[in-house]
Amino acid sequence: MTPVRVACCQVRLTVGDVDGNTGRVRRAVEAAAEAGARIVVVPELANSGYVFTDAAEARSLAEPVDGSTVTGWVELARRLGVVIVGGFCELDPDGILRNSAVVVDDGGVRALYRKAHLWDREKLVFVPGDAAPPVVDTRYGRIAVMICYDLEFAEWIRLPALGGAQLLCAPVNWPWASRPEGERPSEVVRVQAAAATNRMFVAVADRTGAERGVDWVGGTVIADPDGWPIGGLALGREMTVVADLDLEAALDKRISDHNDVHADRRPELYAPVHATKEIHD
Amino acid sequence: MTPVRVACCQVRLTVGDVDGNTGRVRRAVEAAAEAGARIVVVPELANSGYVFTDAAEARSLAEPVDGSTVTGWVELARRLGVVIVGGFCELDPDGILRNSAVVVDDGGVRALYRKAHLWDREKLVFVPGDAAPPVVDTRYGRIAVMICYDLEFAEWIRLPALGGAQLLCAPVNWPWASRPEGERPSEVVRVQAAAATNRMFVAVADRTGAERGVDWVGGTVIADPDGWPIGGLALGREMTVVADLDLEAALDKRISDHNDVHADRRPELYAPVHATKEIHD
Fold it and tell me: Which BP terms does GO give this entry (chains A, B) (predicted)?
């Protein structure tokens, strides 16, 4: 199987500057395609920016899935022959604000996902989605999508992994947090663990560009099924991380003569998780 | 709350040398207690060693939970005023071989756990347990226990975490595997992620001492609720990792004004994990 080149574009975004943001995203995707990328991941809320003053400001920046941002990505995907996975501030058909992401290719919008686990003040702005992360067959492999804080929930990652995803793409906006000297960002560590425990590639596109006192990890990363970051770590700069991935490798979950990370699960024993949760609620 | 000193003893073990192994474990626990540790974790299969030729050899080394190894740990716990968490090769009351671990303190054997996810050739030797990791109230805090490969299953870690465990103790024998230059052992990365996504301390005692061609990571580690390794990384040597833990910190699952790593779970959406698994079986 020929490896597929995957690019994660760590783009500088500015809250409220939809034209500027979508322009920078477009140029990053064009440059990635020019460099041979066939799957391109761009950040969460890549049209609107992140640090809204309030829900009204988010609403003023939100677009339907057939609005100019996603329509622009579909045109770009067709023109460049790439798959694009990106996040955008969505006004859904019921007029509800969603933190959403799409998978688009020359077939148009292949999947629309709405973030199910909302971070901090997002809870004051967005309504979380209730649908599992989609798994989409593309010409380059089976791609799943989720957004940022969703990645912290291993149960959520299991769904597309068990659904056969070879590559999980995650648009994120990881707010900056201090870490001990010499340590990698904790978000990256968790992505490594998610990749390894599912033997699945995970490609994350973070952002840069401080907004209203919030700065970002800038932790764009591509992890392989062993959990190792490949293609380098971005760590803060506006840049694109690129790696050539043998996505077939993610179909093989064996890790020893007698072990398979998925077949070794014992889901009949995990059900008490839910019972325990109910007791604690 | 006064911090409690936790020690994880990375002991050299030799398959078949029960007296030598239990003696080295005893001396390591005594030294840890002397240095002020109140909770001491020792490796998996700390009586028997690991690389059995076959099930018959394991059977010849196995002991009931009231055998000399665990009885010795209870005596040690009483004499030193410590909690000991350690793994041993168990012959259960039905004559079945188990890869087990106990939590012992001055009250005796407080919990007996049988490894539920078996690694590689363990499947030819042991029968896996079916019971969730126990959570034990000790005078120093709520302690849970699981063993080695169990740690790779985030669903399994959720059970004691949701059950209120402040400190998950894990006896392990991590077989050595190559890793890219400059990378931390992948097992340690996954422990960091488990700690952070549950805001729980995790204390792992690995081993040293090559056996029949198998060497070990020697990755003994204590991770805090942010997922950072504290007290250093052992990385191969026979040594003890020590850290003073404020176990109260593990009771607070909040990570922002609006987020709590457990309350933010959406278990009603995770059930398809099990359905998906059944389809794939």
Answer: putrescine biosynthetic process from arginine
